Each structure stands twice: as structure tokens, then as C-alpha cells.
Amino acid sequence: MKLRLLSLYPDQMNIYADRGNIIFFEQRCRWRGIDFEVTRCGTGDTFDPAGFDLIYMGGGQDRDQQIVASDLVETKRESLVRAKEDGAVVLAVCGGYQLLGISYQLADDVIEGLGLVDLKTVREPGPRLIGPVVITVNLDGTDRTIAGFENHGGRTYLGPEAKPFGKVESGHGNNGNDGFEGVREDNLVGTYLHGPLLPKNSWLADHLIKLALEHHHGGTIELDPLDDRFEDAAHETARRVALAG
Ligand code: GLN
Question: Is 154 near ligand 1, meaning CB less than 6 Å away?
């Protein structure tokens, strides 16, 4: 089996070492004898939507988001729409998550997003939303806890068509008001959780690996279990810190 990952703007969209999520995907595949291929896709590059099972974009500062946003819309939107419709997994973190939506407001400017999901990110008076966060998600019929860290100036509001990734238990989430965190639609997940997200939440990494492999190979795929003692301890610490805060 093989997982084909497309890494969008790995040079610009990699704040808080978000590329750690790719390393984590890769290592969990290798431990199970699953081939793993990463293709970098930067400014000006196009990609074949049928060639990838998992598309990843990390977080970025406003400056970097401004650099990639028009390129994203001009050279990659069509392929991203096709890949999403075809069931490829999309995971976008923070700045990458914001760019999945309809628009993103910076200091004095509003930039166009991909419009892949029905959400907008705006600015409001008040401090940046920073700190440890715990959310509850339900992607497979069971409630699960996801723990991480957030740091964003933008406030994201879901439109009527959009469903959140999770419910905030502790922390700010999309905007500090409505109790929602992230967005989820089919196999697409957008979230504010950095840190990187996956080493603290190995269940989520495996869930996305499974969906991506099923996209490539068809059928239902059950992943071999791994020894997750360190991963479980990382999750537990992140969860405890957030709930104590
Ligand atoms: N620049 C965005 C914001 O401040 C996203 C930041 C990030 O990716 N951490 O809202």
C-alpha cells in the first residue's frame, strides 16, 4: 500500500513546526510497512488532483498567507476542488485552514480564499486567541478528545453550509464566542490546532491515514495497531495543561 501526500507551500506555511505533522504521518506509515511519498507544491506549481490521497497545508503568518493566497486561488483551486470532490483527505492548520474559506481579513485588507468550505475569517477588537486547547470531535461515531495549541488573530465564522470539526472544551476555538473549533466536510478537516497537532493526537493521524489509503486503494482498510505509549502520554499532558488553564 502507498500513501501519496501533497504538501502545499511547505516553505511558507510551516509556523510552529507544522511540518511535524507530515513527519508523523510518514513514520506511522513506515512502521506499518506502508509506502509514503511526499510531493512539495509551492508557488506557481500545479498538481494532478488524481495523484494524491492526502493534501496538507500548515499555518502561517499574515505575511506568508498574503504571498500564497493569490497563487492558491489562481493555480491550485481547480485541482483542490476536484481532489476534494473525489474524496482525497485535506488537512489544513491555522493559516492554511483560514485560506480554505471564502475570505480572510488581514489588518487593512481582505484576501480571497479558496471557497472550498463555507466560512469567513474576520478581525475583531480584542487580543489574539492564544493558548492550549481541548476539543471534542466525533468523526467515526465515537466522541474523542483532541488537544493542541492555538495562536491566531483572525476569528473564523462558519456559514450555514459548514459544520465544525469539534466543540471547544477549553480554549478559544474559531472565534472565542460560539464554542466551535475548525471545520469538517467529507474528508476535509480545517483546524486552528498547531503544535504540531498529530503527535499529540495519534488517533486523528491514524484516522486520516486510513481515509487516505481507502481513497487510493478502495475498500475498508484496518491499520495495524502501534505501541502508542509516548503518543498517549503526549496527548494526556496536552489535555491536562489545557483543562487546567
Ligand atoms: N496569521 C493568521 C492569524 O493570525 C494565522 C496564524 C497562524 O497560522 N498561527 O490569524
Answer: yes
